[in-house]
Write a structure and sequence with these properties.
The protein is α/β, with parallel strands linked by helices and 127 residues long. The chain has helices at 38-47, 66-82, 95-104, and strands at residues 2-6, 28-34, 53-57, 86-92, 109-112.
């Protein structure tokens, strides 16, 4: 099955006032957000009418970084490919994470979403 993958912060979630780019019904969300952030993330997605599968970073909130998040996303894409998915595009706003994905998965087109409306550093998201 052909799918696209989407980052959350800076792509699906621009900020509390600005919606973002929404995935199609079969697309997969790959976020750098920690598994510890699952409750508030699921609530935000629910409020936006997004019910896609979400792949969370396995690192704790305080352990993750932009670099580790890029490697996590690349690994998730590889897992999806190994499961039979053909990942066409990944939508990303972080240049460093995009580089990690491109390096590990050169066959996937990384679509850069460019703006200055989202904090790129590790921040908590309220419920």
């Amino acid at each position: 099955m052909k799918i696209n993958t989407f980052d959350i912060d800076g792509v699906i979630y621009i900020n509390k006032d600005v919606g973002g780019i929404y995935p199609g019904p079969r697309d997969v969300i790959i976020t750098g957000r920690s598994f510890e952030e699952k409750p508030e993330t699921e609530l935000m997605l629910l409020r936006r009418g997004i019910y896609n599968r979400v792949m969370y970073n396995k690192l704790k909130f305080d352990e993750k970084s932009r670099e580790s998040s890029g490697h996590h996303k690349a690994q998730c894409i590889k897992e999806l490919q190994a499961s039979g998915y053909e990942v066409l595009c990944h939508f990303e706003d972080d240049e460093d994470q995009a580089k990690a994905i491109i390096s590990a998965c050169p066959e996937v087109h990384v679509v850069m979403v460019v703006h200055d409306l989202t904090e790129k550093e590790n921040v908590r998201h309220p419920m």
